[in-house]
Amino acid sequence: MSFILEVDFYNSYILQKAIIKSSVGANKGVGWPGPYFPGPLTFATNELKETWFVEEGRIRGGYNNKSTDLGVRAYLDEEYPLQQDRVSTLIYSGVYNSRTGINQTNVFSVGDAITKSLDPVYGSIQKTYAEETNLIVFQENRIHRALIDKDTIYTTESGTQTQAGAAVIGQFVQYKGEYGISKNPESFAIYNYRKYFADKNRNAIMRLSNDGLTEISMYGMRDYFRDKLAEISNGKEKKTISITYKAGGTTSTTYLDVFTSAITAGQNITPGMQILRNGTAQPGYITLVETPDNATTRIYYSELFANNLSSGTLLVSYFYKGQVKGGWDIHNKNYVVSLQKFPTQVDPDETPDPETGEYDSYKTIAFDEDINGWVSFFDYKPVQMFSMINKYYTVGASGTTNSTELYQQYYKNTANDTHGLFYGTRHKSNVTFVFNPQPDVMKNFNTISYEGSNGWEVTSYISDFTGQDPNPDGTASYVQSRDSILSIKSYDEGSYIDANTGYTFRAGFDRKENRYVANLRNNSAAATGEVLFGAQMSGIKGYFATVTIQTDGTTQLGGPKELWAAATNFVTSSY
Asked: What pairing do the DSSP bridges indicate for beta strands 296-301 and 312-320?
């Protein structure tokens, strides 16, 4: 059956078609494929229509300008088609010159040598970066550099000379070291002549500079990155979530109305996902997700649903890949890397562990060149990170929505204190350190003091392990004993007024001579042969103690906090 499509403007030609969704008197948007449709829509409420898109046929839309069309569509009918995936080969087109109007970016002449191949044993090419007259090519397991429009000549005196060459990409030279970028090109970041990236295959974070390759994860964090990078998935992992859709809520067999309250944090429904019924995937995929009202989320699908999809529980499945996001923080001159087991679209709003305050599914950490070490962890989970002019920006998910927003980090708002505020959520800052005076002496730690701002509290103060003993419950397992304390409240949060005297006392830190001091109250369970234990003013016993101190939730909320020094009082253990 033939079909006639009338196009009013003769300088246009048909480009593609798309699905239009609209309500009366309003433009709602377009499904798959295509951009937003700008024209007026007068369809009935929630009606779906197919429309055709057209594209301007004149260059720049000018009168009598040069016209274009779709051109010749070449194809080859092979009896036995053989497709090759040359994942370790580069190809380049003709030249582009904006001054002379030459544009050959769509020209790939088979008569010219326009391909350059690397050894496929090092895996696929994941990223290329042009640096002045050099092209740096990152394979999964190797890094090469090549001159652009030049060749290197090696002399008999073991020297090198550079001369103009006929090839666009010259000879490839390997950087020394068996390192690559694995399959994480998103970890790449650059500042001046330094390039940073992750090599997950070798559990390493790398720096490429004028002195070659350096494994910066070795600077005090080797074990940490070895463990965390090993948890990032290499390939696609499948995740299935369950949601509830409304009874009788479907007025069309191409979309479902879902209770918005049923879509919790970590259950973002996005285009490309697939719907399962009775464990079997429904043909097609999700094309668009809308929210007609606060209580309803509408899911459009590329295929028709069965008529009996009227209410009940729905399974949505999708594939994801762990990511290692990298970016340059120009404000602090730091390389920031975020190790994410799940992309933000999969798990946007994970809550921290209530005991440790840490996030398990992602870790964001910064490297500082000034001290050649890793300086800080961050609570935010970025989708993208980049610097522009003298400001550092990140893109992150806010709330339980599918949308992402652009944020300027280190932004100072005179009306509101914004310290620790990431993507609309305020986080507490914390510092963990170790008290280890006289390492060969068993000690009783009795007090703690710090010099700095008001508003710090101690959430953890624990000793080292005292060895493994049989479990008291009679099982074959072993347990390790260690002393810990009750948490210490901050100066403001620990204040209370005595009902009898009317005086103000402090249950946590008190201030003396411009220092904040507090006693340690033991909170340990009884160990074998232990005399003093439990909630009493006995301090804790051990060779060393690990302490975590963090900002509280009320004192000058969001304002700056300083922590200059911390100290402890101890005595040599006599038992």
From this structure: unpaired
Peptide bond before residue 33 is cis, with ω within 30 degrees of 0: yes
Residue 221 belongs to a domain: no
201 in any annotated domain:
no
**Residue-level pLDDT at 539:** 80
Structure-token match 């003298």, residue found: 390
| SS3 per-residue string spanning 416-477 | CCCCCEECCEECCCEEEEEECCCCCCCEEEEEEEEEECCCEEEEEEEECCCCEEECCCCCCC
Tokens of 103: 């544009």
Residues 167 and 248 in one domain: no
Question: pLDDT band at 43, cuts 50/70/90?
Answer: very low
Residue 400's SS3 state is coil
d(CA 574, CA 571): 9
Q: pLDDT at residue 21 above 60? A: no
Whole-angstrom distance, CA of residue 22 vs CA of residue 44 = 7
Cα separation, 236 vs 527, in Å, equals 47
pLDDT (mean) for 406-434: 84
Which residues, at least 6 apart from 39, have a Cβ–Cβ distance to it below 8 Å? none
Q: Tell which wins on pLDDT, 201 or 268.
A: 201
pLDDT band at residue 293 under the 50/70/90 scheme? confident
Task: Please check the confidence at residue 248 and state whether its pLDDT lies above 50.
Answer: no
Task: Output the average pLDDT for the chain.
Answer: 78
CA pair distance 513, 64, nearest whole angstrom: 85
HSE-CB of 399 using CA atoms within 13 angstroms: 5
Task: Average the pLDDT over each of 89-98, 156-165, 326-335, 481-490 and give the range with the smallest value.
Answer: 156-165
- Do the Cβ atoms of 449 and 563 come closer than 8 Å? no
pLDDT at residue 101, as a whole number: 85
According to DSSP, residue 226 is labeled H
Number of domains in the chain: 4
Statement to judge: residues 470 and 554 lie in one domain: yes
Q: Cα angle vertex 555, ends 550, 559, to 5°?
A: 85
Is the pLDDT at 332 greater than 90, yes or no?
yes
Domain span holding position 33: 12-58
- 349, 347, 317: which is closest to 242 by C-alpha? 317
* Cβ-based neighbour number of residue 339 at 10 Å: 24
